[in-house]
Amino acid sequence: MKRMPVIFAGHGSPMLAIEDSEQTRGLQQIGKEILQNYGKPKAILAISAHWYTKGTFIQSTPEPKQIYDMYGFPDELYKITYPVKGYMPLTKAVQSRLGNTVSIDDSWGIDHGIWTILIHMFPNADIPVVQLSVNGYLNAKESYELGKQLITLRDEGYLIIGSGNIVHNLGELEWNNVGGSTESIEFNTAITNAVTSGDIKL
Description:
By secondary structure, the protein is α/β, with parallel strands linked by helices. Helix content is about 35%, strand content about 15%. The chain is built from 6 helices and 8 strands; from the N terminus they run βαβββααβαββαβα. It has helices at about 20-40, 75-80, 90-100, 110-120, 140-150, 180-195; strands at about 5-10, 45-50, 50-55, 55-60, 100-105, 130, 135, 160-165. The strands form 3 sheets. A 4-stranded parallel sheet has the order 1-8-2-6, with helices on both faces. The longest helix is centred in the N-terminal third of the chain and has 17 residues, at about 20-40. The radius of gyration is 17 Å and the shape is globular. The model has no long low-confidence stretch (mean pLDDT about 90).
């Protein structure tokens, strides 16, 4: 079995779920390449910037609810469903690696940071999904160390997907600038280069 990859997807607007664009077609291609090159994941460990918590939490419910955690969008968006199952073996695998630093919390669900991208990557919704929260109490180095503890999940057939945005400041957004501001492009490039070069000086 090949080690599953790790994916980070900047999801942007929730409208991504119903759009046909270069980004959505890219997500579709990534999903196809994963299935072709690595096989179907046993389950997906999803980490969304929208589940930002005071502590580290993992889901255990067999049927996680879909969360429409966005406001003011067309009714069409709120009718989109992505009915995935949970997967207790993945929950237990995360618990075995993180020990007493992680707790069960089923009050959340599959939020729009995850289902808006998975609906393009794996449209059949036939791969279980378990969300892991982002612990707001951890600094960058501690978050990095937590991630290292989860690496071996990939050897067991689990796909890890992170979702959010490198740059996210709606107050400074230049709505008419399709290419993005110079500052956001420079920051995004710096972060991307750090990740691809393995620069972990946090």
